[in-house]
Amino acid sequence: MFSMQTAANAYAKVAVESKVTGANPHQLITLLYDGAIEALNQARMHIDSRQIEQKGRLINKAITIINEGLLASLNVEAGGELARNLAGLYDYMTFCLIAANRTNNRKSVDDVIKLLAELREAWLVIDPQKTTGTNSVSTAATLPRQFVYS
Predict the structure, then answer these.
(1) 86: number of Cβ within 10 Å
(2) What is the biggest distance separating any 2 CA atoms in the chain, rounded to whole angstroms?
(3) From the centroid of its chain, how far is CA 87?
(4) Digit-coded pLDDT (tens) for 30-56
């Protein structure tokens, strides 16, 4: 039987696939941040309602996005200290989320959401589509974007 939830899930999957297909590299990193934050926001609700299996699935999804998306995309050689610092921060987030998953600690999840949101906002500031042709962001500020992610 095709339920409304199944239909909603299918629609969401197509919507995400469409965003990914049409995204440039900068937008793909933004989508990774969005996906991790969304998964962790949902995990928080499941912690509150004591739905342990769903909470674990969503925290694991966020960990996968952080490790296999954000961390794996870093170009540490070209990105230098900035990329190394981001790698360390992603490792720290993973550590916090593993502990939060084990202990149902919502505060740890909240802390990681805050870190991801701050990184997302910083990433949006250096969006090449928003900075091209304007002097609002200096060339020095846009340089790291070119080298941090592969």
Answers:
(1) 20
(2) 56
(3) 13
(4) 999 999 999 999 999 999 999 999 999
**Residue with structure tokens 């919507």?**
15
Residue 114 burial (C-beta neighbours within 10 Å; 0-12, 13-18, 19+): exposed
54: tokens are 């769903």
Neighbours of 89 (CB within 10 A): 16
Is the full-model pTM beyond 0.85? no
- Round to whole Å and give the CA distance between 21 and 15: 10
Give the span between the Cα atoms of 31 and 102, in whole angstroms: 27
CA pseudo-torsion sign 60, 63, 67, 68: positive
SS3 of the chain: helix, strand, coil, percent, to 5: 85, 0, 15
